[in-house]
């Protein structure tokens, strides 16, 4: 009895121990000495264990519970031998269930069965269960808890590209046997429920090597995956984000185009052009060949929000829209939203083009470039810190002047046309929970088609984006950006009217977006954004001491734009998915400025000015705003067939001023103010989406209807540039657009590509109080870009892995135009009378382009891998009219047409990659 009492006393003797100035090993050694217990563990298990607590009169079990509570380690105490064994994830069970020894009558067996249904058995693992050859060690997740046994546990994590260090979105993670599937979001994060115990998960995504991992689930926990890129060369021309996303996603009217997909498509002068490829998709077109800007579902070009790494780019083209102002070797992809865009985007009525730049290589220096007839491109990827940070540099320039000088046209011998653009992007991943990226971009164009005027325009932008994980279920993205667009005219002649003209628009934005996964059914996106505009509408300065041009300067315009937004992707059932969101947009035009007020019921002019109002610096001139809805729904009839519908409305507070048929580099942007209201738009869509033959074929048929209020147009002969009272030249009315879009794509095989067809109409109506404010007697009339029929065929056929041919065919209805229909004589002078606006059409447009693509040999060890494209643009030599104009010769009115490329244009481009 004496010996037993001594043993009991030593067992319960309290321990006082401090962690100050001790390593983990030193702390555990001291704990052994003071407790008289031997501790057994592997040092690898405790290398990340930090002990920062002090204990007074505590038992050994209390001390171990405290220091191991936030780890995956458990412990088991063998009292008789005074030993403590550390356990990785699991626990030791040293008792059988109470019912084990009871009689097995019906009542007892039913109680045992009920108990077994409510309380799952402990998690056990036998090495013989594993039948797969694994190079990676088995992943043990969670810390077993005898008091909290469940049939399933939650696995969360993040998937990272081992080469670039960037997150991998749209990666499918499947649990073998259970049928459970999860897909990573934009930050590479995923959450899925797995059965307790042994599991095998597999991963798959385009361009990522498939992987397999054995996982033992003891409790909820985290598992991050580092995956390798696939070295297999893709052979398809596919415009898709994921094999089944077109069917499964709730959002309709969205497309994703990879820059790599544009390399096989024959375009003018062999230039890769991701924006030109976008025109081959249904619902997207332009006013004509060489026209700057896109018309999306009957909207104007200024109704598109074009973003480059979260910063607005006002003119993403070079040389009147013939070339894109984006380096194809630094551009990763563009996401196009034609319907209800994500809830964080706003400020435009028609579409969002979200262009993303690649992350640089974090392992080794690499590069890509091309040399063509008129341009040279180069991109370099430089690792800064291995597996952590990288820098990507891109530059391209044109040497097109020699073409103009070689033309057999004396008036063009002194012309010039050149451009360049450059981009720098830095990307750094701090850890699996935080990363930052910064982008800087600049482009500039100079062109002179006449001998007396030099035109120039430039884009400058910068953005910083910090993505961080707030908790297991929440992430945040903070973005700051600045954009600047400028154009100028440098005029010189032999007289005294030399001048310099400048125009600038600048905007800065700050946006914070959060994503929270509440549960399996709800995922929230929410946040706020604020934007500041500063517009210098233009100024003219005399050039040279002999110029007699008077200086002119238009007052600066300023405004604030902000929004609060929240969205929820609500999984009602396996078949029904709803994506619903709401925004509240706010806008305020600010001083310092002066604004005119006009007599009601009278056309705006200098003679109807009622008062001139002055506003101080920072004072609000006029505020606008209102709620915006984003609603999309998808019903899945079968895994490869769905029906989708959507509705959205939006406000647009900024407009372009142009009285040209197509957008030009000297179009100005105008902010809403006291006299110019914001545009408002409403759009509803409904469509069917179907995949065939294991997603080899995609088929979609989607209809839309769009209504627009307070859209802008201009009076005939309007003077817009350097006009202090430009509102006197502006008309605001209503518009409507509707159409049906058909798309058939073949994603795999030797022959791949797509066929798209759109039937659409785009009409506007301006019906003011007076005849001066009406167009076509206040009736709806076709817009300048109304083209009912639009057909595109993109095809690529691979003979071998090195040789392929490609084709691009386009057919479009001729755009509307206003014709002279008669003449009259007044005061002994002849005048022309014109038809109603846009009553007639120019001839239909069609074009066929062909290309031959030759890959270099596929030897692994070589200085650079090459790729040669030989293309002919407009093979048929179709003299497609760009515009039709009228001249009077010998008292007779004659119609003439101008064309951009009226003959076949051959080109050869050499591409290299190292």
Strand content: over 45%
Shape: elongated
Which CATH C-level class of the largest domain is it?
Mainly Beta
**Total beta strand runs:** 57
What is the CATH architecture term of the largest domain?
Beta Barrel
Please estimate the helix content. under 10%
Alpha-carbon distance between the termini?
83 Å
* Overall pLDDT confidence: 83
Main beta sheet strand tally, sense and closure: 22 strands, antiparallel, barrel
What number of domains? Answer: 3
Backbone CA Rg? 34 Å
Q: Count of helices?
A: 7
The CATH homologous superfamily of the largest domain is termed TonB-dependent receptor, beta-barrel domain
Structural class: mainly beta
CATH topology-level name of the largest domain = Maltoporin, Chain A
Descriptive report:
The protein has 914 residues and is mainly β. The protein has three domains: 2-88, 3-Layer(bab) Sandwich (Phage tail protein beta-alpha-beta fold); 127-227, Immunoglobulins (Immunoglobulin-like, Sandwich), CATH 2.60.40; 245-913, TonB-dependent receptor, beta-barrel domain (Maltoporin, Chain A), CATH 2.40.170. The protein is built from seven helices and 57 strands.
């Amino acid at each position: 009895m004496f010996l037993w009492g001594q043993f009991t006393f030593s067992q319960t003797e309290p321990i006082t121990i401090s962690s100050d100035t001790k390593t983990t090993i030193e702390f555990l050694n001291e704990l052994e000495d003071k407790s008289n217990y031997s501790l057994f563990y592997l040092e690898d298990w405790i290398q990340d264990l930090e002990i920062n607590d002090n204990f007074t009169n505590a038992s050994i079990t209390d001390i171990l519970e405290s220091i191991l509570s936030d780890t995956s380690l458990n412990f088991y105490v063998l009292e008789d031998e005074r030993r403590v064994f550390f356990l990785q994830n699991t626990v030791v069970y040293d008792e059988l269930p109470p019912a084990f020894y009871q009689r097995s009558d019906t009542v007892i067996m039913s109680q045992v069965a009920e108990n077994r249904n409510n309380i799952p058995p402990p998690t056990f693992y036998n090495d013989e269960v594993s039948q797969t050859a694994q190079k990676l060690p088995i992943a043990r997740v969670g810390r077993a808890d005898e008091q909290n046994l469940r049939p399933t546990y939650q696995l969360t994590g993040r998937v990272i590209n081992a080469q670039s260090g960037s997150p991998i979105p749209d990666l499918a993670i499947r649990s073998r046997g259970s049928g459970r599937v999860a897909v990573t979001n934009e930050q590479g994060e995923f959450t899925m429920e797995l059965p307790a115990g042994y599991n095998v998960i597999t991963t798959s995504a385009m361009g990522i090597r498939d992987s397999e991992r054995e996982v033992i689930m003891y409790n909820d926990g985290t598992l991050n995956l580092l995956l390798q890129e696939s070295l297999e060369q893709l052979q398809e021309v596919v415009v898709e984000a994921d094999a089944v996303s077109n069917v499964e996603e709730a959002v309709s009217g969205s497309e994703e185009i990879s820059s790599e997909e544009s390399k096989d498509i024959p375009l003018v002068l062999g230039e890769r052009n991701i924006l030109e490829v976008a025109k081959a998709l249904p619902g997207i077109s332009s006013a004509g060949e060489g026209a700057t800007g896109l018309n999306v579902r009957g909207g104007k070009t200024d109704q598109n929000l074009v973003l480059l790494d979260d910063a607005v780019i006002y003119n993403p083209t070079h040389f009147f829209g013939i070339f894109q102002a984006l380096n194809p070797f630094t551009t990763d992809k563009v996401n196009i939203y034609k319907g209800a865009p994500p809830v964080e985007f706003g400020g435009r009525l028609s579409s969002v083009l979200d262009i993303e730049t690649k992350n640089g290589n974090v392992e080794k220096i690499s590069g890509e470039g091309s040399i063509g007839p008129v341009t040279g491109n180069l991109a370099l990827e430089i690792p800064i810190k291995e597996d952590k940070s990288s820098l990507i540099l891109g530059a391209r320039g044109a040497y097109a002047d020699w073409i103009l000088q070689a033309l057999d046209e004396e008036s063009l011998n002194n012309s010039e046309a050149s451009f360049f653009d450059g981009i720098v992007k830095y990307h750094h991943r701090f850890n699996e929970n935080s990363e930052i990226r910064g982008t800087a971009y600049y482009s500039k164009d100079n062109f002179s088609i006449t001998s007396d005027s030099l035109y120039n325009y430039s884009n400058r932008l910068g953005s910083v984006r910090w993505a961080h994980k707030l908790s297991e279920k929440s992430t945040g993205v903070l973005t700051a950006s600045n954009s600047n667009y400028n154009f100028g005219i440098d005029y010189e002649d032999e007289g005294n009217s030399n001048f310099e003209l400048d125009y600038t628009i600048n905007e800065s934005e700050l946006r914070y977006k959060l994503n929270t996964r509440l549960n399996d059914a709800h995922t929230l996106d929410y946040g706020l954004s604020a934007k500041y505009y500063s517009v210098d509408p233009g100024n003219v300065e005399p050039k040279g001491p002999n110029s007699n041009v008077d200086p002119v300067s238009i007052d600066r315009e300023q405004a604030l734009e902000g929004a609060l937004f929240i969205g929820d992707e609500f999984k009602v059932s396996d078949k029904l998915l709803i994506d619903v969101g709401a925004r509240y947009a706010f806008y305020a035009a600010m001083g310092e400025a002066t604004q005119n007020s006009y007599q009601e019921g009278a056309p705006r002019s200098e003679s109807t000015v009622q008062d001139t109002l002055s506003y101080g610096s920072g004072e609000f001139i006029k505020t606008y705003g209102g709620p915006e809805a984003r609603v999309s729904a998808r019903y899945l009839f079968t895994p490869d067939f769905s029906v989708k519908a959507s509705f959205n409305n939006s406000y647009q507070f900024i407009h372009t001023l142009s009285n040209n048929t197509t957008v030009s580099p000297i179009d100005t942007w105008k902010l809403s103010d006291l006299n110019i209201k914001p545009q408002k738009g409403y759009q509803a869509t409904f469509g069917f989406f179907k995949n065939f033959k294991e997603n080899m074929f995609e088929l979609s048929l989607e209809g839309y209807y769009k209504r627009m209020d307070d859209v802008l147009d201009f009076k005939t002969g309007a003077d817009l540039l350097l006009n202090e009272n430009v509102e006197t030249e502006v008309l605001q009315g209503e518009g409507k657009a509707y159409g049906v879009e058909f798309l058939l794509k073949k994603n795999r095989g030797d022959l791949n590509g797509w066929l798209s067809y759109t039937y659409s109409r785009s009409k506007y109506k301006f019906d003011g109080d007076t005849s001066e404010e009406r167009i076509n007697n206040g009736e709806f009339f076709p817009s300048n870009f109304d083209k009912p029929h639009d057909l595109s065929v993109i095809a690529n056929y691979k003979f071998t892995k090195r040789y392929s041919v490609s084709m691009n065919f386009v057919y479009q209805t001729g755009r509307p135009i206003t014709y002279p229909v008669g003449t009259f004589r007044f005061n002994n002078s002849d005048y022309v009378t014109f038809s109603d606006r846009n009553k007639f059409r120019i001839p239909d447009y069609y074009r066929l382009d062909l290309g031959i693509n030759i890959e270099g040999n596929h030897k692994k060890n070589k200085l650079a891998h090459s790729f040669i494209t030989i293309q002919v643009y407009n093979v048929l030599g179709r003299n497609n009219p760009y515009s039709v104009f009228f001249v009077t010769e010998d008292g007779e009115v004659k119609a003439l047409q101008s064309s951009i490329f009226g003959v076949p244009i051959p080109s050869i481009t050499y591409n290299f990659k190292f």
